[in-house]
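Why does residue order matter? Because the sequence determines the fold. Keep that principle in mind as you read this record.
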Amino acid sequence: MKTFFFPLLISILVQISFGQIENSPPKDSNKTILEADNEVYFDEELQRMVAAPNARLESGPVLLLADRIEYDANQSEAFAEGKVILSDGDIRLLARRIKLNLITGDFNASEIKFGIYPWAIQSDELSRQNSTIHGLNSSLYLLGKEKNEPNLLVRELRWNEEEEVIRAGNISIKLGDHTVGRLPSFSGKTNRKSLQYKLIAGKQSNLGWYLGTGGKWQLGANVDVNADFTGYSKRGLLLSPGLQWDSNGNDSNYNGSVESGWIDDQGDLRGNDLLGSPIDSHRSYIRAYTINRPQENWRVAGQFEWNEDSEVYRDFQRQQFHENQWNDSFGEITYEGKNWTVSSLTRWQANQYESTVEQIPNLRIDLAPTPLASTKFYNTIAIEFSAFRQKGNLGELLQKSNKLDLGYKIVRPFRLGNGLIYSPHLSYRRQDYSMDGPNANRSMGEWGNEIRYEVSGDYNWENATWNIDQIRHIMGFSISHRKVNRMSADQESLIPQIDNPFVELNLRPIDLMDHIEADGLTPYEVVRLGWENQFLTRSGEQTRRIASLHFFQDLYHKKENDGDIAKEFFASLSIQPAPWISFTGQSKINSDEGKVIRNSFSAQFIDGTVNTLEVGYFKYLSFSDQWRLSAKHRWDERKSFHTSIAFEEESNTIPYWQTAVEFNRSAAWTWIISVTGRKGTTKENETELALSTRIFAF
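Structure:
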């Protein structure tokens, strides 16, 4: 992949630069103007008009300046030498001498300098003839030539404009005037663009010293490819290729990514995996994600997360491991109608060390609340078939069942006036299980009532800085009652408990049809009080939510065989009056015992391009009680400072911290020095020093 990076830049720059001259011939050669400090004269021997000193030729959009210019009106050719400046309104080119055909755009120039942001190019010779550009000894710099600046030297360059093919030979990578590497000859299409290049170095206790390089390239308008190569003193060479695509059409879009890694691990202390087995030397991983809409109504999505062993991603992608501790692999296809959907999903166990509930397949049909005929009744339908296979962390089959789940709900809202709405409903749900032994089934019926009072108010408040144009406050009070009874059952005790929620950290559903993972469904009764608030503003022709505040409290909750269930309080808050400030928070409490089930919040503050501050806190059940803070400060145009820290309140420890300084030494070099500390696990009790650089990244 390295072969693509540098030569492709050349094609882009040449195409942009000299394509302009070809498309800019003068409309009428009689409008060509030639002048100088001295009088312009006709040289009989040369058969040309001659202008000097400080000569100036203007022909259509082309402006040519030089110490001396000779112009052949019969051939529409100009010859210039000495401090040559050529411009066509889009580019500006400097040369020692140049021969230019004002009609065809063909030219022959020497000692050329020109720039297309952010690149500066020098070339000993550059010519164009019959749609082919030929260059000798061309050097490319980022913004400008500086001491010890990385640059490219291309001894020979040939680009065919019509075929859009570029060929480059004898390519050198240089630091200043010193050659540090060479690339083989290159041939390829000119519509491919390079994006960035990087170098990294550092030390981790379990991996040793490491040195890596990599790049990212645009293979086409919608496809990027990347490849990283990292050598570890204790482990060997890690190869990490990847692919990303993003294509948007009028009625379709396709996007996705693939990330992978492979290493022949030479470490003496690779350790054991989660199952206690020794880790093999051949280690690899794959991450693949895609979401596609071939047509407006169709959605195709997939995810594949595979590790050859439980520790490979943790060892070699430590920065991303906290977001990839639990893996999931599935494929889904959905058709979305006006008020109904049909979907098919397959979920499987990709990693044998992770227990998984497979669904091979899951088929579902949903009808959103829809008026029943011409009445004011609204009905909802949900039909689902799932083939569950519960796999253990050795890949063994623990339990299985085939379930057909049918749900139906009918509701009739009554508007009582003054913002008061009463909505009674009836629901029915039947579950049929097919198992190796006797089959089982059950059916439930629900009687529900909800009284809701909703009011709104408008406030004539405007703020141009915060982009607020009036505020509308919508507030609703509700009291909801649900009572679910068993209507029939057969062999219910044999139903395997496969499809059940691990833990409910959000607002618990109370509607019978809202229980998605429902193998453990039993009769219950609940009364819940709610208070909801939304604050909206206008943003052009759109409506934007700037804040919301919701409270819910269970007044009564009882479940069959369990008696009274702990009553829960749930609150959520979201504030984002402007793009540069936001706050979100959730809290869930067992109000009977005062125990915290969940407390979490996050806040972000952005001060232009100078400062960014993020603060977060989360506590889930008995897990963690952690504060997190991250900040970024930009000292000046060249230097910025980053820091992150996590603090465990209960244990009074700091499990993670990082400090990094980013220094833009020049337009071509960006250096990043970071120190990271981790504490609290068997693998991450260490301090890591890392040095990385981005080259030609913009």
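The two ends are 19 Å apart (CA to CA).
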